[in-house]
Design brief:
This protein has about 210 residues and is an alpha/beta fold. About 35% of the residues lie in helices and about 20% in strands. The protein has helices spanning about 20-30, 70-80, 110-120, 140-145, 150-175, 175-185, and strands spanning about 1-5, 40, 45-50, 55-60, 85-90, 100-105, 125-130.
Length: about 210
């Protein structure tokens, strides 16, 4: 069974932040495939879904981002899986807003959610669906930026990009990583990172994944 995990921070104060892109993609998959997430299973909100005739377990770890590893380790142990059964969806500041990239293995790139997953799994051999949120505007700390709310222009396009990321996950599940990369790693129109000065008040650096 594949375990598909979207990364984010729990609680209403984080729902509309860039850091919760992974949660939004899992929510879209739940909606599409009539799934149901139950809270507090090994520290995750999780549940089963049948995605294109493949049984999948969807999860949103309910620890803060930089403590994502233990909940996913618990689920993998329960299902008898390992890192090769895991697909992680996460925000990525090194990609323009809305850009989707797929990879397997590799480093954590400074993302402490991935760092913690590496630590608890003892492996980096899991698939990632990277959801671009763009670089912070000049003068901003990365922590402030990812824990800020989507700008108005980003919010207007967000549903389309979340749907695109969900399509990527479905393709990995049905056809494998290589086929998904061939389909989704086409040249995309570069989106310019947007500014959102009022978003700085939404930052809660104690729980941030980047730079802690």
């Amino acid at each position: 069974m594949n375990l598909v995990a979207g990364l984010g921070d729990p609680g209403s104060r984080y729902e509309t932040t860039r850091h919760n892109a992974g949660f939004l993609v899992v929510d879209e998959l739940v909606r599409r495939w009539d799934g149901t997430l139950k809270k507090d299973r090994f520290g995750s909100s999780s549940g089963d879904a049948l995605i294109r005739n493949n049984k999948v377990h969807l999860a949103k770890p309910q620890k803060f981002m930089n403590r994502s590893g233990a909940p996913l380790r618990g689920l993998l142990d329960y299902f008898g899986g390992d890192a090769g059964n895991l697909i992680v969806i996460h925000d990525e500041v090194d990609l323009p807003f809305g850009t989707i990239r797929i990879k397997q293995s590799g480093g954590h790139g400074g993302h402490n959610g991935l760092r913690d997953i590496h630590k608890h799994l003892g492996s980096n051999a899991y698939a990632r669906v990277r959801f671009g949120v763009g670089r912070p505007p000049e003068g901003w700390e990365t922590a402030d930026y990812v824990l800020g709310r989507w700008s108005a222009s980003e919010a207007a396009e967000l549903d389309s990009h979340i749907s695109h990321a969900a399509n990527a996950v479905e393709t990995i599940i049905e056809h494998g990583l290589e086929a998904a990369m061939n389909q989704f790693h086409v040249r995309e129109k570069t989106a310019q990172p947007t500014t959102a000065g009022q978003d700085r008040s939404q930052s809660f650096q104690a729980q941030v994944a980047y730079g802690v």
